[in-house]
Design goal:
By secondary structure, the protein is an alpha/beta fold. It folds into two domains: 1-81 and 167-249, 3-Layer(aba) Sandwich (Rossmann fold), CATH 3.40.50; 92-166, no CATH class. Helix content is 36%, strand content 24%. The protein has a six-stranded mixed β-sheet with strand order 6-7-8-3-9-10, with helices on both faces. A hairpin with a 2-residue loop joins strand 4 (59-64) and strand 5 (67-68). Helix 3 crosses helix 4, helix 3 (97-109) runs parallel beside helix 5 and helix 4 (120-135) packs across helix 5. The longest helix has 16 residues, at 120-135. The chain is globular and about 50 Å long.
Length: 249
């Protein structure tokens, strides 16, 4: 498609008298990497929930792939091609890496995923899962229980679980949370390798990752968009440097 893959149109969400999403509008292009940043309490988590479908806005619209999805639940949005990678791990610790990715593929495909009844559909899911694990560098970890993986490997596994859904937009909610510098650098390079192949909206606190990956950055402060622009625009904005990047104007 030539238009934006995601449009947030004047989203509003309040809890009591407290506005958490304050008339937020933004767009993500079909192959764009768009980063959403802001200080703690800026409303990023609420906005992610509104995009994914777990939180219903009080007003405004979420348009995905040209369709108004404001009232659709997360499962229906996922089937349309919106995949979310969570801030906290969603893997099943007792399942192998391959089984976790197969489950993600099955959820999108609508398969029952019968472990003990191998059929063509499940073989197809296995092939897709194996390819996704290879893509994120876990080709030698198929049979390892997810709970036994290192933290950075679990984050890569979660990315594979998103990619196996063949999404049109990957929503990444703090993918670097809890990772060390070496793991962060590896995951950043992994995401960079996807540049141009898939649209991504990344919510992240690690500024090195943000400025390495993002084509555009939107800064959220007190629930409202403070500025949206290129990484150079964000670096040059005195208000953002003072309020968020911790620099003097």
């Amino acid at each position: 498609m030539s238009g934006p893959i995601l449009v947030l149109d004047d989203l509003v969400k309040s809890y009591g008298a407290l506005p958490v999403t304050d008339h937020v509008s933004l767009e993500v292009g079909p192959r764009e990497i768009h980063a959403l940043i802001g200080p703690n309490g800026a409303g990023k988590s609420t906005l992610v929930g509104e995009i994914a479908g777990s939180i219903r806005p009080d007003a405004g619209r979420v348009v995905f792939a040209g369709r108004d999805v404001t009232r659709l639940d997360p499962a229906r949005r996922a089937r349309l091609g919106l995949a979310r990678v969570f801030q906290t791990s969603q893997v099943v610790a007792g399942f192998t890496a391959l089984e976790n990715v197969q489950l993600a593929a099955a959820a999108t495909a609508g398969s029952a995923f019968r472990f003990l009844t191998p059929v063509a559909a499940e073989r197809g899911l296995r092939d897709r899962a194996a390819a996704a694990l290879e893509r994120v560098g876990l080709g030698d970890r198929f049979t390892v229980a997810a709970g036994a993986l290192a933290h950075g490997e679990k984050r890569a596994l979660e990315l594979a679980m998103g990619l196996v859904q063949e999404p049109r937009l990957l929503l990444l909610d703090e993918p670097m949370a809890g990772t060390g510098r070496e793991e962060t650098e590896r995951l950043t390079e992994l995401l960079a390798s996807l540049d141009g192949s898939i649209a991504m909206l990344i919510v992240e606190h690690d500024m090195a990752t943000v400025f390495r990956l993002a084509h555009r950055i939107t800064v959220l402060i007190s629930g409202a968009v403070a500025i949206s622009g290129s990484p150079d625009d964000i670096r040059a904005d005195a208000t953002v440097r003072s309020a968020y990047l911790g620099e003097e104007g």
